[in-house]
Amino acid sequence: MNNPGSTKTTGGDGTPGVPKLILMTADPIGGVWNYVLELSRGLAPHGVHIALATMGRPLSPGQRREVADEANVTLYESGYRLEWMENPWGDVDQCGDWLLSLEAELKPDLVHLNGYVHASLPWRSPCLVVAHSCVLSWWEAVRGEQAPQRLDVYRSRVARGLAAADLVAAPSSAMLDCIRRLYLPLPDAQVVYNARGRTRFRPGRKEDFILSVGRVWDEAKNIGALVRNAYDLPWPVYVAGEINQPGGGAANVDGVNRLGFLAPESLAPWYAAAAIYVLPARYEPFGLTVLEAALSGCALVLGDIPSLRELWDGAALFVDPDSATDLQKQLRALCADRSRQASLREKALERSRSFSAARMTEGYLALYSRLRAGRAVEVGE
User: Fold this and answer.
1) Domain hosting residue 59, numbered range
2) Cα 52 from Cα 68, distance rounded (Å)
3) Does 170 share its domain with 251?
4) What separation in angstroms does the CA of 379 have from each of 119, 126, 308, 370?
5) Where would I find the H helices in the chain?
6) pTM of the model
7) How does pLDDT run across 23-34, given as a tens digit for each residue?
8) Which residues form the signal peptide (predicted)?
9) 104 in the same domain as 34
10) How far apart are CA 239 and CA 210, in angstroms?
11) How confident is the model at residue 255 (pLDDT cuts 50, 70, 90)?
12) Interhelix angle for 338-352 vs 324-335, to 10°?
C-alpha cells in the first residue's frame, strides 16, 4: 500500500468523493491519448482538473491544440522513454522522480496511471492503474508464444507496480483476464469500458469503399493483411495511419489509398462515408477506432479475438486474423450483399451506444470515490 496522505471529501462540484485535481499520465503514441482526452472532457462538468504528465515522445502540434481546447487540462510534458520501449529503465526511473516532484508540487487528490511501473513509487496520494495493454499479452497474441526471457525485467517491474497500486482497472474483461493470468490475481480489479463522444462521429451518406485506421506497420493491428488483399477486392481500400516504423523503414501500402495520419476531426468524414470498416486485429484490448467506426454507422469486419468478441459479438463480422483467404472471402461476399451491410451497420450503431462517454465518466468517478474513501479510512486509523 502506498504512503497515506491528506484526503478531502468533496470534489470541485461538491460531490462527495470527486477529486478536484488528478495527476494523470499518458503518452501521445497510441489510443491512450484519445482515451485521456475523452475522459478529461467527461470529468470537466464535475469540476475535476487534470494535470496531464506525458512521456514517450514530444506532442505533435495537433495534439498540443487538442490539450489547449480542454480548459480543465494542464500539460506537463517530458520525453522519457516508456516502459515497453527498448532499454527504457534509466528513463523510467528518471521519469518516476519527475512524477514524484509533480505530486509534491501539485498535491493532487489522486494519481491515475495509464502504465504500470510507476505505481510502485512512494505516492502520498491514492493510485489507480489502468491496464490498457501490455508487452507479454501482446507477445502471446502476435507471436503465438510466451514472451522471451529478456522481458523478465519488464515482467517483474510490471507485477511490482500492479501489487503496489491501490486499485487496478482495465477497458475490457479480456484485457483484465490477461493481466491476472500473466502477473497477479488482482481479485478486486474493475472493468470500465472506453468511450468516444457521439457528437464527433456520426453516420453519413455511405459510399462503396473500405476503411481501416491504425498504425499500418503494427503486427497487432494487422492492417497489413488488408493491404495485401486490397488488389483482389471489388471496392477500393483507404487506410489512415502511420506507415513509418519507430526503428526505421516503412510498411508497404501498395494497392490501397493512403490517407496518412489524420486527427479525429479529419477522420470523422471518412468514417461517415465508409460502408465497411476493417480491423483484422491479432491483439486489441479495446479498439477505439472500432468504436469510432461503429458510431459512424460502418459495417464492422474484425479479427476474431476475445476482446473484440466481448465488445462486438452479434454486431460485427469476425474473421481469422491469420487467414488471408478468410479475410478476402468475407470481404468480397460483404461488398456484394447490401442487405447484410445494412444489418451490420444498424447493429454496430446500436451496440456503440453501450460505450457512452457518460457511462465511462461515471465508471471512473465511482473508482475515484472508492479510492479516496479507502484512503480516508486509512488516514482516520
Assistant:
1) 21-195+357-380
2) 12
3) no
4) 20, 11, 41, 14
5) 32-43, 61-69, 89-106, 135-143, 152-164, 173-182, 223-229, 264-273, 288-295, 306-312, 324-335, 338-352, 357-380
6) 0.91
7) 999 999 888 999
8) none
9) yes
10) 8
11) confident
12) 100
Q: Does any domain span residue 318?
A: yes
Q: What amino acid is encoded at 61 in this protein?
A: P
Q: Is the pLDDT of residue 6 over 80?
A: no
CATH code of the domain in which 250 resides: 3.40.50.2000
Judge whether 359 and 195 are in contact, CB under 8 Å.
yes
pLDDT of 342-359, one tens digit each?
999 999 999 999 999 999
Tell whether 105 and 151 lie within a shared domain: yes
- Reported as a pLDDT band with limits 50, 70 and 90, residue 247 is low
> How many domains are there within the chain?
2
Tens digits of residue pLDDT in 89-120:
999 999 999 999 999 999 999 999 999 999 99
Asked whether residue 171 falls in the same domain as residue 35, the answer is: yes
Cβ–Cβ under 8 Å, residues 232 and 257: no
Distance CA 305, CA 294 (A): 18
